[in-house]
Design brief:
By secondary structure, this protein is mainly alpha-helical. Helices cover 73% and strands 4% of the residues. Strand 2 and strand 3 form a beta hairpin.
Length: 266
């Protein structure tokens, strides 16, 4: 019995140490709401990449120490994560990490498809055409880019290509967010906009984890494919074709499911 308890204490201590050793974010100089957002984003990445395990208890005081903030934004971040189904609140344990499976990803994408397809139909004819044209030009350039693998024994070449790939990822992330935010802001339904805003941290964390996985595997052909899907959405919106825009959005989200699933920690 004593040996079992000692092992349990050792595992618990190791887990606490692992949590503390995770890179602490710099959160000074940003407002309270932005701090909460940063904390939510980082905890989502930790969960999806397996640094925080299913069943693990999140201790508010430890998280406050890690992020260098008061307990207030930590509590708010945990409430937000519970609200999107990533944490469970258990009696006498507090916030506990849920296991996120491929089935969860598929269900999240079903919800996303329903919301985004409705939003893009409503946004047709309401969205600034100059902004859409600017996005179309940007997506067209990305879609025409040829993927390059980071595979060389020369350290300078690897460093240069890695930096180029990171720039490509950052650009793709920015364009993706700009389009989906523009659609949400132009849909004319404040409740739909609010729900998309509530869930977009979850959507984008799945996206970012899957993109990081693709980067590590030099599998970047998807960036051009995804830009082509975005371009189809934008071109339909420029034409005011609600049916085509909704169909293009649905296709885009269905295509993303397998990539989002791949990013989950096994």
């Amino acid at each position: 019995m004593a040996v079992t308890q000692a092992k349990s204490r050792t595992k618990s201590k190791a887990r606490r140490n692992a949590s503390r050793s995770t890179k602490t974010l710099v959160t000074n100089g940003i407002d309270h709401g932005q701090r909460r957002k940063v904390i939510v984003e980082q905890l989502l990445l930790d969960i999806f990449q397996g640094r925080l395990k299913a069943g693990e208890r999140l201790v508010i005081t430890m998280l406050a120490e890690r992020f260098g903030v008061s307990q207030s934004p930590i509590r708010e971040a945990l409430v937000a994560l519970e609200g999107i189904g990533i944490l469970d609140s258990e009696p006498n344990r507090g916030a506990v990490v849920r296991r996120v499976t491929e089935s969860d990803v598929k269900e999240v994408c079903q919800v996303r498809r329903a919301l985004e397809c409705t939003a893009v139909r409503l946004a047709c004819g309401r969205t600034d055409l100059a902004q859409l044209q600017e996005l179309a030009d940007a997506f067209r350039k990305v879609a025409q880019q040829k993927p390059g693998a980071v595979s060389s024994r020369n350290s300078k070449t690897v460093k240069r290509r890695t930096a180029s790939l990171q720039k490509q990822i950052d650009s793709a992330r920015k364009l993706d967010s700009l389009l989906h935010d523009l659609i949400a802001n132009s849909c004319g339904n404040r409740f739909l906009k609010q729900e998309l805003g509530r869930l977009k941290l979850l959507f984008r964390s799945f996206r970012d984890v899957s993109w990081k996985q693709r980067s590590s595997e030099s599998d970047v052909a998807r960036f051009a494919e995804e830009a082509g899907e975005h371009l189809a959405i934008v071109e339909a919106m420029l034409e005011g074709n609600t049916k085509a825009a909704s169909k293009a959005m649905s296709r885009h989200i269905r295509q993303g499911v397998k990539y989002w699933s791949r990013g989950l920690s096994k």
